[in-house]
């Protein structure tokens, strides 16, 4: 029976292999991009209906200002690498919700939410750009699809997303929300893998630098988050984004490369070409 199960699952895994458009890393991707975008639009709309948008006009404008600059940088980056088709059906949105939880996330299609609780850690436009660029990087690198695919395979026997939604809607939606770090007290929340985190850190630095933000601001932000993580109630953001001194060293090591994008504010060389391992 074990061999039979392996024989049934192995073709599925081989057929579902995809390549991260940024690093060339092979990843599991069971869900078509069109399905991810459709579900993203649905769940994003539901989230906004169920959560209060911030009435702080200045901070709302800050989120939209920083988000718009990052959107332009991401689109320019993808065009420069012949990957514009990957973003063709994106419909970017940037919203600030009233919630004391220090958190932020980006669904497929550029659907971004910032929680007011993370603003004391970001402090400035550049600090906010660190968070938003990092979350955008997770989305465009397909990390959510990868995490959702792994959950469907391990917890639902490789069931197709639409079938899972039909037969186990609540569990499937919980898996979806957990895949993007949305909400708290989710039974299925797991940290992004270290490799996914490094991909998002490095690519996020490139995006923010191309948008005109000093990449070294990332050190201050993650240091502040790491200091909070030592308290009895670490930020929700760190439940899916583990922060430690080794991670900060990795960011510091990449900043000189990111600075070339900041100085030029245009694409020069691809920093993550060839499936680099970290």
Explain what this protein looks like in three dimensions.
This protein has 278 residues and is mainly alpha-helical. It has one domain. Helix content is 58%, strand content 7%. The chain has twelve helices and five strands. Strand 1 (17-19) and strand 2 form a beta hairpin. It starts with a helix and ends in a 14-residue tail after the last helix. Mean pLDDT is 78; it is low at 1-16, 184-190 and 267-278.
The fraction of residues in strands falls at 5-15%
Q: Tell me the Rg in angstroms.
A: 18 Å
Structural class, judged by helices and strands? Answer: mainly alpha
Instruction: Average the pLDDT over all residues and give the rounded result.
Output: 78
Describe the protein's topology.
Blueprint (H helix, E strand, L loop, with lengths): L1 H14 L1 E3 L6 E3 L4 H18 L6 H24 L12 E5 L6 E4 L3 E5 L3 H4 L2 H16 L2 H14 L4 H7 L1 H11 L14 H17 L6 H13 L7 H4 L4 H20 L14
Parallel strand pairs: 3-5
Antiparallel strand pairs: 1-2, 4-5
Question: How do you describe this structure in short?
Answer:
With 278 residues, the protein is mainly α.
Tags for this entry?
278 residues; mainly alpha; 3-stranded mixed sheet; two-stranded antiparallel sheet; 12 helices; 7% strand; globular; disordered N terminus; disordered C terminus; protease; metal ion binding
